[in-house]
Amino acid sequence: MAHILVVNIGSTSLKYRLLEMDTEQTLARGYIERIGSEASPVSVTNGDVTRSFALDTREGYDVAIQAMLDAMIRPMDGMPQVLDDPSRIAAIGFKTVHGGMKYRGAYRLTEDVLTEMEKFSSVMPAHNPPYINAARRFRKLLPDIPLVGAFETAFHKNMPDYAAVYGIPWEWTEDFEVRRYGFHGASHRYVSERAAELYGKPLAELKLITCHLGGSASLAAVMNGTCVDTSMGFTTQSGVPMAKRSADMDPFVLPYLAKATKLGEEAVVHELVTRGGLAGISGLSGDMRDLEEAYESNPRARLAVDHFAHEVKKYIGEY
What we know:
This protein is of the alpha+beta class. The protein has eleven helices and eleven strands. The chain has helices spanning 61-73, 111-118, 128-141, 161-164, 170-176, 185-199, 253-260, 265-274, 277-282, 288-293, 299-318, and strands spanning 3-9, 14-20, 25-32, 40-46, 49-55, 89-94, 106-108, 147-150, 207-212, 218-223, 226-230. The strands form two sheets. Strands 5-4-3-2-1-6-8-7 form an eight-stranded mixed β-sheet, covered by helices on one side. A hairpin with a 7-residue loop joins strand 3 and strand 4 (40-46). Helix 7 crosses helix 8. The termini are far apart.
């Protein structure tokens, strides 16, 4: 029987599912959230048995990956073992993020593909490095198991050029692949297909606006099954505000802040990725659950929530 392990590494989370493909049965699933914190919420389910606990993930994704494997092979007391030997995994699938113009589909994660992904690591610091590191870690732990990446940009690759280009010198577009790519492709594809199913009409006959709202968020305009515009652009830093990412911003803010703060451009970019967004506005948290809890008592938490809602509504109106 073929086992497929599907791993989704988000900006602050790791989710996984172990599938038995012959019967389409889920053998195990789980998630680890708020990676990088002292007490990350963890939920693991083997068969019908679920356990929840907290895990110190301040050392990053390596801790989360090892915890995932341990949960399946060396489970907690009272939980069934669902994988006695990792070699029974036929392949490991990843929801990879940015592979530039060359990789916008599903590809085996060879070293050539990982090297291409590294070209975009500086502009995708919360996504590409964790996936590259995870792929190399899995390759080291399980060298005989194929690794396959399904890139988030695939759903948006047929977006019209007039929606994808930026107003920059054309040689920058051609030479450096700077354009709107769009992300969360698997989510937008699924939501649009599911909406058509629930609506009872063919997707090819519908105009939809799909929303992926969470710690990382984006919207897409989907016409007759094809994405014609999306809020994220060259990177996941654009669009609506997110947990810790600033999202849409005048490009001249960056050099201004680099000079005004005396931090330099690289340090300011790091701050915008790690301390921006809802966390930056509220000064409390980038997690909407925390902000909603503090909505009535904390003016900046209220401002963060209201700003997020405003930006989402603005994009819906635009599309």
